[in-house]
Amino acid sequence: MTDALELVGLADGDVEVEILPGVGARLHRVRAFGVEVLRTPDDPRTHLDQPWFWGSYPLVPWCNRLPAGPLSVAGRVVDLPPNFSDGTAIHGQVAVASWSQDGASSWTVRAGGDGWPWRYEARQTIELAADRLTLMLALTNRDETPMPAGLGIHPWFRDPLHIAIRAAAVHPSNLDPSRDPEPVRGDLDRREAGPLAVGVDAAWTDLAAPPVVLVWPRDGVHATVETSPTARYVVAARLAGVDATAVEPETHAPAGLRRLLNGEPGGLELLPPGETLSLAVSLRFERLET
Fold first, then answer.
1. How many independent structural domains does the chain possess?
2. Which of 24, 90, 153, 226 is deepest in the core (most CB within 10 A)?
3. What does the pLDDT look like over 126-174, one tens digit per residue?
4. How far apart are CA 224 and CA 288, in angstroms?
5. Which helix (H) or strand (E) holds 209?
6. Residue 37: which of 237, 282, 222, 226 has the closest Cα?
């Protein structure tokens, strides 16, 4: 195994994690009560070959898809290369970048100043406490002008999974997102826990507390997901051929740059120079009665 694929382990109580600092400071593995809850590849190199469909990784400085190619934004030219099969620039810039450790359980990366013309710094901190895992992301604008900014966390939770998303409204498609969300109904009314239908790829908002509950019925494990107020959206997707469900707390809606430029709700926010946008996501694990 190369240094880029070196795993860092943390454990406390009933929760264990393994982190790949050299590949986006992503979570390779999470165990609760000895149960694997993430889609974890046998070989960590798979995160490099198929970076979008394994483990859990940070979304910085935007979430979901942005158009590739030149676009004028806030007085700068954004010119992102495509990095996904549909020709878009997806999930930010640092999900496979090498992050540097700057504390016992925190890592940082500096990026930007290229196709994303603003320079920025991101920090991820991981905290474990008995039955709880908390991920904290912080994005700081290190440039001289306001920068569009968004944060998210993209875990793939292992199936079979039952999920409840306590939301009153939804953007039904992340591929062609509507300007305004719709009231939840049908397969997109997720207020009661159950399997997400294959083919769903949507973004929920108008969230209640806690916004998400996860249940692994076969393993008798339950997780309550709590988020900071900056997590105004939860994206969830279940794709054919992927034996996991993505559940992604995010600070903005899909098509965040379009929304910013058009004054639509849910866009990337303009982060002033030197200011920081933060996001926290906590999972509290419990054993279910059998």
1. 1
2. 24
3. 999 999 999 999 999 999 999 999 999 999 999 999 999 999 999 999 9
4. 12
5. strand 201-216
6. 222
CATH code for the domain of 150: 2.70.98.10
Closest C-alpha among 180, 173, 242, 231 to residue 207: 231
For 204-222, the pLDDT digits (tens) are 999 999 999 999 999 999 9
Record the tokens describing residue 164, joined without a space.
Answer: 């409840």
- The closest of 85, 67, 253, 93 to 174, measured between CA atoms, is 253
Domain that holds residue 176: 3-287
The tokens describing 150, both together, are 């968004």
- Looking up tokens 């590849």, which residue turns up? 41
What is this structure's pTM? Answer: 0.96
d(C-alpha 213, C-alpha 190), whole Å? 10
User: d(Cα 233, Cα 80) in Å, to the nearest integer?
Assistant: 24
Backbone angles phi, psi at 116, to 5 degrees: -100, 100
**Cα–Cα dist 194/177, whole Å:** 24
